[in-house]
Amino acid sequence: MLQFLRQNLVYSSLILVLATSCKTYTLADVKPVSTAEKVVENLYFSSNGDYVYKCQIDIYKNHVSGILIIKKLNETTHRVVLTSDFGNKLIDFEIADNNFKINYVLPDLDKKIVINFLKNDFRQLLRKQYPVSESFVNDHSRIYLSRIDNKSYYLFFNKDNGLLKQIIYTRNSREKIDFTFEAKKPIFADSLNLHHKDFKINIKLVQITETE
User: Fold this and answer.
1) Using alpha carbons only, how large is the chain's radius of gyration in Å?
2) Most CB atoms within 10 A, among 7, 73, 113, 170?
3) pTM, 2 dp
4) Is-contact 100 79, C-beta < 8 A?
5) CA 45: distance to chain centroid?
6) Which pLDDT tens digit goes with each residue over 23-42?
7) At CB < 8 A and 24+ separation, what contacts does 193-200 make?
């Protein structure tokens, strides 16, 4: 199964190189508003406790499952461990905005494309602070646009409860990843769907043990 995962990730990279259908991302049915907010935050992984999720990865028509554990080590760094359903460690790494350290990786997964895929996805997922460039509203959300280098992040906060429900990550104006959250409190997401726009890769996390 692990070798199959690796082969499909390689295949995905070839599809990406050839893909031409990735469209420019634009907000629809919103109006700009002024805001006093200078920075907004994703607090879902800000607790010092362990975040434990059932992890499901779909690559094209194929399915891989396991257990994912995320732990905040300090204000800038998280540790991420992925195991099989039977508890065998697949990969263990530490990640921050400007640092990435592999503690362990199963030989079958020790491929550049796999490592880069995990590093990019979790670096975007675990980013905490977003400087606000513009602000918008629609019927259901308050939306903050954050520009960082050639990347843009659209953060959607629920108007009713103030919780973060979605992040759209774009690069060079092209939509790359859609993170969609379900949560009842600001520091813990009960579930997460991560959907790539230029890979046929989806990741779903569903909580096993809730952190306080």
Assistant:
1) 17
2) 170
3) 0.85
4) no
5) 11
6) 689 898 999 999 889 999 99
7) 194/121, 194/125, 197/22, 198/16, 198/19, 198/22, 198/174, 199/12, 199/15, 199/16, 200/12, 200/15, 200/59, 200/60
